[in-house]
Amino acid sequence: MRVFAAIDCGSNSFHLLVVKVDEANQTWEAIARDKEVLRLAEDDSGSRISTLAMERGIDVLRRFKERADALGAERIIAVATSAIREARNGDAFLERAEREAGVPINLISGAEEARLIYLGVASSFNFAGRKVAIVDIGGGSTELIVGTATELLLNRSVKLGAVHLTAQYHDHDPISADGYQEMLLDIHHGLQPVTAEMRRIGFDVLVGTSGTIENLAAIDAARQGAECKPGYEMSYAHVREMERSLRGMSYEERLDVRGMSPRRADIVVAGARVLRTVMDQLDVESVQLCDRALREGVVLDLLYREGILADVDHAHDQVRSKSIREVGARYRCDLVHGERVAKLALAMFDQLAGLHGVPAAYRDVLEGAAVLHEVGQLVSRDIYHRHTYYLLRHTEFLGFHDDEIRLMANLARYHRKSLPKKKHENYMEMSFDHRMVARRLIAILRMARALSKSRTGAVDDLTLRVEGNRVIMVLHAAGNVDVELRSAQEKAEVYAKYLGVDVQLEVNPLGLAAAEVVS
To answer: Is the entire prediction scored with pTM above 0.90?
Structure first.
């Protein structure tokens, strides 16, 4: 049995999930859960994490790590969502989390948050051949998703969270008529473009997940004298009646409502209004409760990505590759050329694994940089590598964390012209470990691009072997490769600088078996 942990650093609360994985039987189960309400998103401007919230957050992370370590977790994967993503001092929190609590946190985009929620829901909800719509109301944002059991069709994040909305509009207790009307209009206009897209795609059932909807379901179940458990179904009529009654109550009155969580009594009105509006705009009669969400998705994403659990439907292990190609199409780059560069770069990465020592998890990052290294030409052909860095750094990629996107952008930035320097802020903002990874992968990417210099695809493939401090690189050629040979010789010095080996180039005309050349 192997043990892993996930920490969800949300806008309203932090969650810990520890799971035990049985690789032989390809199963997993939760062995511990914990939760702490922190309200990082309490400031209605969303601009800063307060000093108190930051200190409490670091303390909670320390405690979560201690518990995960005590249970034998070999990996702790932590992600941060909208509050930290948007706070001016979010970087300071991330730095302290790693330094003081020993928990590196991956910053994820709203779209990636939605994808991971979908992954968590898909692990427990019976899709039964249906299209399923999912709503997740958090503290800082609401995620809206449509998918089947094997395909994600839509994933959107809207900046309408229960904590932010409460801070901005809940001006009196109970909320004033003016505050309520302003909040209603903000929610309506914010959700409408996404719910319209969901209706165009179509779906068969609406599923709700995470704390706000769980609490509303608990209140409804208490009113109906029913048991609130996964699969519990709330009718639109009941959601509408709950929202109407809750908004007319004071905080103390809401605390006395059966089923109410004391930690949500202050923000439940905004959360109920978001859910009611979603159901209004989607024209649905009910919403079903699911007990899995982001943290389960984080764990499963890791287990699928590293092959610990088999992704039998291949629904999730291709998400990074698909996202790379979608970005390339969006920026109208030469994908044929990018794919050729990627093929050669990945051949070097795979065959030289013992030399470069870069973990396999970075293979997709190299692939992304190779496929997309010319996207900056959309802006200008002059210094396009710098434009490439900017575009990739500010693009959402599904399946990639923020640090991985930063690394990908830097690899593409240095595929030509100058090598990284300490005065380059884009390079120095990476962690030391990522700078070391970057140096090795930059050498590979530069050589792969050199071997595609003529853009004819003359170098079809590579066979490599290491002999002492020398790499023998056999080019399987489909035509004249003089241009590629000259270009590759120029890039050989980067191999020597960053990989510590010399390069010897040989040509194998296609038709002659590779084994005859390298034996």
So the answer is: no
